[in-house]
Structure formats: C-alpha cells, structure tokens
C-alpha cells in the first residue's frame, strides 16, 4: 500500500484522460501528472534541435540533456524544457505528428518511466492521478486505483472536432486514429489488464465521467 494514493489512468487519444484526470484531481485534492507531456516535450526538443525523429540513436542522445519539468498541481499546469515554457508548443500539430516515433524507442520509454516515478514521489498532496498509455501496466502497476478510460472512436472524434473549426475536423479525426494505431504497437491501452477497471464515457457527459473516477478512487482506498 502506498503512503500516497496513486491513481493510474490509461486510454486512447481523445478519451478524456487529461481533462478528466485534472478535474478529478481537483475534486480529490490530489496532484495530477500528464505523462504524454514528457513524450511531447522530447519530440519538441528533437524538432528544436533539428534531430531526425526517425533516428532512435539521435533521440536517445537527447536524453543526456533534457531539462524537463512539469507542474503537477491541477491549478498550476505547465511544461518546461529548461527555461522555455512549452505548454502550448507541445500541442502543435508538428509535434503531435512525430510524438509516436519518439515514444516507440525503448530507451526513451525506460528513461521517462523513471522520471514519471520520481514525479509521483515528489508530490506533497495526499494523492496523485497519473494518466497516459502504460500507467496501469508499467509505470504504476501497484497503484491504489487503476482505470482504463475509454469511449468509442466516434465519440472521441466528435469531442475533438468540437474543439476545432469544421475545416480541420476531418484531418484531426484521421490523425487521432492513426496515432492510436501507431501507439498500440508499443503498449496495449485498448484492453484493460487484470485488475484494471474500465470506465466507458461514451454515454456519460464530462461531469459524470469525473464523478465516476472520483467515486472509484474513494471506494478503492
Ligand atoms: N465524458 C465526456 N463528455 C464529453 N466531452 C468529454 C468527456 N470527456 C472528455 N471530454 C472532452 O473530450 C476532449 C478530449 O479530452 P482530453 O484532451 O482530456 O483527452 P485525452 O485522452 O487526454 O487526449 P490525448 O491523449 O489526445 O491528449 C476534451 O475537449 C474534453 O473536454
Ligand atoms: N504513458 C504514455 C503517454 C504518452 N505516450 C505517447 O505520447 C503521445 C502523446 O500523448 P498525449 O496523451 O499527450 O496525447 C502519445 O500519442 C504516445 O505516443 C506514451 O507512449 N505513453
């Protein structure tokens, strides 16, 4: 049993991992760690330093000088590489387009898994919600609560499209699907591992989904 309550949440792109985890952390008085941000920040660093993102050796070399930091208070979220605030930049399509290539390199994954565990240990709150693709299985398999947050691809695309102009909606839907296909070759986040509870938000609104997570955490302790 952890002294700090650890909640692990995995799921495909657009399933609501970041937004739901953040709101649930706020409701519970917990910290919140977005692990996709680290893969994105490394992809941003590769682009910034003009490194070939298809070359694993060049990506691994970046890890020797990767001064990454993230805000884990749900009301003070930021992502930095050194002194550069990359919170917005890591969401740009050029970063999203190459992040899966960065995330499939085994040395990158093992380096970041250790980083995620050190961030979990650093929290000064009673618990932390950690979301990503391999949190329930690799990063924190002994978490107090382990959740697979899903929704049909149709629902996820509709939610993403609602954030965008009509013009780019179709392209974004296609990118979401192709990113899931690439990421699924590296980690299985479509099927719940043993002991992992599935929350399917297809028929739930945002607040109901947050409540489902909060209820599960409260009954897991
Ligand atoms: N149950 C829900 N009902 C309606 N909208 C939702 C629900 N859950 C999440 N959303 C919305 O869906 C969109 C995608 O959510 P979010 O960015 O949190 O997904 P994600 O899983 O973190 O995606 P990615 O892995 O691509 O970063 C957001 O606009 C969010 O507000
Ligand atoms: N635990 C994780 C988290 C993320 N990834 C990779 O990072 C990409 C971006 O993640 P978002 O959650 O910000 O969309 C994602 O597409 C994966 O390639 C990962 O491998 N493991």
From TrEMBL:
GO cellular component: cytoplasm
Reactions listed under catalytic activity: dCMP + ATP = dCDP + ADP; CMP + ATP = CDP + ADP
Source organism superkingdom: Bacteria
CDD domains linked: CMPK
An annotated GO BP: pyrimidine nucleotide metabolic process
Residues covered by the Cytidylate kinase domain: 7-218
Pfam families for this protein: Cytidylate_kin
Keywords carried by this UniProt record: ATP-binding, Cytoplasm, Kinase, Nucleotide-binding, Transferase
Its EC number(s): 2.7.4.25
Family annotation (InterPro entries): Cytidylate_kin, Cytidylate_kinase_dom, P-loop_NTPase
UniProt cross-references to SUPFAM superfamilies, sorted A to Z: P-loop containing nucleoside triphosphate hydrolases
Subcellular location: Cytoplasm
Signal peptide: none
GO molecular function, one term: dCMP kinase activity
Primary localization class, coarse: cytoplasm
Residues where ATP binds: 11-19
Similarity annotation: Belongs to the cytidylate kinase family. Type 1 subfamily.
NCBIfam families, alphabetized: cmk
Protein name: Cytidylate kinase
């Amino acid at each position: 049993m952890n002294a700090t309550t650890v909640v692990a949440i995995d799921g495909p792109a657009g399933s609501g991992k970041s937004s739901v985890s953040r709101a649930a952390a706020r409701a519970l008085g917990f910290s919140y760690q977005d692990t996709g941000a680290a893969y994105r920040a490394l992809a941003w660093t590769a682009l910034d330093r003009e490194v070939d993102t298809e070359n694993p050796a060049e990506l691994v070399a970046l890890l020797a000088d990767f001064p990454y930091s993230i805000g884990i208070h749900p009301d003070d979220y930021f992502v930095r590489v050194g002194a550069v605030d990359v919170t917005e930049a890591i969401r740009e399509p050029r970063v999203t387009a190459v992040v899966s290539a960065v995330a499939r390199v085994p040395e990158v994954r093992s380096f970041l898994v250790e980083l995620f565990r050190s961030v979990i240990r650093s929290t000064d709150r009673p618990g932390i919600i950690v979301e990503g693709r391999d949190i329930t299985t690799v990063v924190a398999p002994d978490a107090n609560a382990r959740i697979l947050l899903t929704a049909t691809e149709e629902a996820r695309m509709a939610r993403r499209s609602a954030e965008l102009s009509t013009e780019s909606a179709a392209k974004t839907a296609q990118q979401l699907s192709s990113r899931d296909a690439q990421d699924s070759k590296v980690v299985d986040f479509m099927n719940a591992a043993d002991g992992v509870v599935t929350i399917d938000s297809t028929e739930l609104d945002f607040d109901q989904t947050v409540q489902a997570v909060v209820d599960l955490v409260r009954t897991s302790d």
